[in-house]
C-alpha cells in the first residue's frame, strides 16, 4: 500500500543535494542505525545505506554541524537487539532471546556500544528533559503531527534547540511544517514533488 503523505515540510532529495558547512542537521535514528551498526545490511538494502552514507560523508567533509538525540539510544538499542535476534533465530520472540540465550547479550552489547560510541564521537547531543511538561507538549503534537512517540520527542528537542533540519528516511517527518527533511525516501520525495514542497538548494 502506498502512503499518502500530506507534505507540510520542505523536502530535500539527498541524492542530488550537497551539504553545506553552515548546515545543522539532527540525524534520525534510522540513519544512525545504517551508519554505525555493522550488520545493518541484513535488515536494509545496501543501496539505501550507501545513499545515506555518501551524504553523511559529504556533510562530515564540509564540517556540517551534526546532532543526535539521547532518545535515539533507546530506539537504536531496540533495533540492534531485534536484528541480532533475527540473525540468531527468527523463531524466538524478544523475551525468549533475551532470557533463554543470555550469552547472546554480549553480542548485542558489543554492537550497541560500538554503534553508540560512533554516534557520540561524530555528533553533539541535543538534549531534551523528558518530564511531565514535555510529555504534555508531545501529547499535543500527537493530535496534529503523524509521527510515533520517539519521533515526536525528537521533534520537541529540535524545536527547543532551534534546529530545523533533519536527515531521515522516515517519511512521517514530511507532515511537520517549519522543518526541512533531507531524505532519499522515494514516497516522501514523490509527494513533495507533486505538492510543490521539494526544495532544490
List descriptors.
single chain, 8 helices, globular, six-stranded parallel sheet, alpha/beta, 201 residues
Main β-sheet: number of strands, strand sense, barrel status?
6 strands, parallel
Give the helices and strands as they follow along the chain. EEHHEHHHEHHEEH
Helix content: 40-55%
> Regions with pLDDT < 50 over 5+ consecutive residues?
none
Number of strands: 6
Report the sheet-strand fraction: 5-15%
Q: Would you mind describing this structure in some detail?
A:
With 201 residues, the chain is an alpha/beta fold. It has 8 helices and 6 strands; from the N terminus they run E-E-H-H-E-H-H-H-E-H-H-E-E-H. The chain has a 6-stranded parallel beta sheet, with helices on both faces. The two termini are 31 Å apart. The mean pLDDT is 92.
In short:
With 201 residues, this protein is an alpha/beta fold.
Question: How does the SSE layout of this entry go?
Answer:
Elements: E1 10-13, E2 24-27, H1 29-36, H2 46-61, E3 65-68, H3 71-88, H4 94-100, H5 105-122, E4 124-125, H6 132-144, H7 149-161, E5 165-167, E6 180-183, H8 186-194
Parallel strand pairs: 1-6, 2-3, 2-5, 3-4, 5-6
Helix pairs in contact: 1-3, 1-5, 3-5, 6-7
Amino acid at each position: 500500500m502506498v502512503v499518502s503523505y500530506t507534505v507540510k515540510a520542505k523536502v530535500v532529495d539527498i541524492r542530488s543535494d550537497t551539504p553545506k558547512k553552515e548546515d545543522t542537521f539532527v540525524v534520525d535514528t534510522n540513519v544512525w542505525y545504517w551508519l554505525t551498526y555493522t550488520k545493518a545490511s541484513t535488515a536494509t538494502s545496501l543501496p539505501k545505506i550507501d545513499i545515506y552514507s555518501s551524504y553523511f560523508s559529504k556533510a562530515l567533509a564540509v564540517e556540517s554541524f551534526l546532532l543526535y538525540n539521547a532518545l535515539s539510544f533507546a530506539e537504536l538499542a531496540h533495533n540492534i537487539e531485534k536484528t541480532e535476534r533475527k540473525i540468531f533465530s527468527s523463531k524466538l520472540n524478544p523475551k525468549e532471546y533475551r532470557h533463554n540465550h543470555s550469552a547472546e547479550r554480549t553480542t548485542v552489547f558489543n554492537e550497541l556500544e560500538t554503534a553508540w560510541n560512533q554516534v557520540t564521537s561524530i555528533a553533539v547531543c541535543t538534549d531534551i528533559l523528558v518530564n511531565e511538561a514535555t510529555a504534555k507538549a508531545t501529547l499535543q503534537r500527537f493530535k496534529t503531527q503523524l509521527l510515533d512517540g520517539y519521533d515526536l520527542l525528537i521533534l520537541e528537542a529540535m524545536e527547543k534547540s532551534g534546529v530545523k533540519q533533519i536527515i531521515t528516511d522516515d517519511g512521517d517527518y514530511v507532515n511537520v511544517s517549519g522543518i526541512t527533511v533531507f531524505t532519499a525516501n522515494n514516497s516522501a520525495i514523490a509527494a513533495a514533488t507533486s505538492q510543490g514542497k521539494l526544495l532544490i538548494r
